[in-house]
Amino acid sequence: MEHVKQFLSEFVSKVAHKARQLNKAVWILETTGSPDAADLKAELDTELRMLFNDRAIYDKLLKWDQEIQEPLLKRQLNVLIRAFKPNLIPQALLEEIAQKEAELSQSYANFRPEFEGKALSENEVRAVLKKENKAERRKKVWEASKEIGDVLAPQILHLVQLRNQAAHSLGYSDYFQMQLDLQEVNGKWLLQTFDELSKRSDEAYLEMLQKIEKEQSKRFGVEVKALGPWAWSDPFCQEDPLNNQELDDLVSQLDFSKAGQAFYERMGIPVHPILERSDMFERPGKSQHAFCINIDREKDVRTLNNVQPSIRWLETVLHELGHAIYELGFDSALPWLLREPPHMITTEAMALLAGRQAYRYDSLSHMIEPSEKTEPLMKKADQSLTRRQLIFSRWVLVMTEFESQLYSNPKQDLNGLWWKLVEKYQKIKAPQGRQSKSDWAAKYHIGLAPVYYFSYLLGEMFASSIEESLSKASGSQSLDSHKAGQFLQHKLFFPGNRMPWDALVQHVTGYPLTPDAWLTQFAGPAELGAQG
Ligand SMILES: [Zn+2]
Question: Of the candidates 61, 208, 372, 392, which lies 20 to 30 Å from 30 by C-alpha distance?
Answer without folding.
Answer: 392
